[in-house]
Amino acid sequence: MTPSEIKSVVLEELGNIAPEVDPADIDPGADLRDEFDIDSMDFLNWVTALSQRLEVDIPEADYPKMQTVDDAAAYLAKKAKAA
Amino acid sequence: MAEFRMPSLGADMEAGTLVEWMVEPGDTVARGDVIAVVETQKGAIEIEVFQSGTVEKFLVEIGDTVPVGTPLAFIRGEGEEPTPEGVPEAKPETPKPETPAAQTPTPPAPPSPRPGTVRASPAARRLAADKGIDLSSLTGSGPGGAVVYHDVGKALGAKRKPAKPSSGGLDLDAMREAIATAMARSKREIPHYYLSHTFDIGRAVDWLGGYNEDRPPEERLLMGALLVKTVALALGKYGEFNGFFEDGHFHAADGIHVGTAIAIRGGGLAAPAIHDVDKLPLGELMAKLRDLVARTRAGRLRSSEMTDPTVTVSSLGERGVEALYGVIYPPQVALVGFGRIETRAWAGADGTLSARPVMTATLAADHRVSDGHRGALFLQEIEKRLNDPEAL
User: Fold this and answer.
1) Which terminus of chain A has fewer CB atoms gathered within 10 Å of its CB, N or C?
2) Residues in chain A within 8 Å Cβ distance of B319
3) What is the pLDDT of residue B43?
4) Half-sphere exposure in the Cβ direction for B371 (13 Å, CA)
């Protein structure tokens, strides 16, 4: 998968959690939890979906690397390549 | 012959709208089976039947709004003789005649799949047959994955629904009104007292990290699951916080069914029950919590989840505040609140200072039923159990 494809997946799965947010309005450098008003259950569901879809492991310790759309996409791109 | 009536799904509910039948006359139902979907201020609720038997006759039409207590259907108990058509058994005084007594004209029944094939509501089957849609090609959004009218309608691109508002969505304004009624009643009738207790939650945090480290995301636990289980276990010892205040006195509940406060996007709030939490292993509790949150946000709860909470637990999580002082949901008698975990300078048992993860638990309780002394012991029991996470 290309980095831009991964970013699409990231945004798509965020859309599943926060359907009322318009992808065009998202600031990819902003803290996700503030932008989307996500709680820990939402975050876990999002991580689960990404982990299953991209077939990579996302340990809890790495959650801080997924705070923004850009960071999450970059982290997952690296993981997907290494997988 | 038993009458299945419109249930009361909350202290504030007065009426409901029948949106869909999930069975048809002749079907056998077991206690706990979903028999119908009813639209209330809190969204579409799946109504469960209280006794086993055979569905005999529907008394209310799809789309009818009827008061709580109105008979919706006749259910023949096991071993009873079927009642001859048009001769209902002696009815006890039934509330108002908003219910049409006439039988709904049924369209010619299409060949319905035998049990074992696609699970679908009768309305869904009829619509699918009419329009030539293969039910097995659809994903069901009803109970147990059953295909409901709404699913067939969506597949058709049709806007028609069996009844008024969202059969599967939420009307947040109506929900807000229901919350307002309940909260106003709570503060009017329940003399609340409040206690708060701050403690080191490091052991639970460490244990949770260790548990989750070796597991894929779908098997991980959230602190919320630990909190709910802890309260349930503590209630085993402090039963005066688990039950209802009705008819002028306290009735201790038989089981521990924890109402979990769930925020809904757009501004709603619900606190549906997870049953017998004290008996659930953490993994199973977490799975139920995930499922409950998803269904609450989709507006698809079951009646027993609305009526059965014996206590409520509320946590605003890591994006919340230091402490949460709740408003008890009548007729319950307690609400346990959890603030967010914060790192603070904390004096250990030996008197030395270090940075520790700390949490504040609060208790809102009905002073007609309990006093501060027992409330304090209850909160300390919660601290004790959270500091022994392996035993949860």
Assistant:
1) C
2) 33, 39
3) 79
4) 1
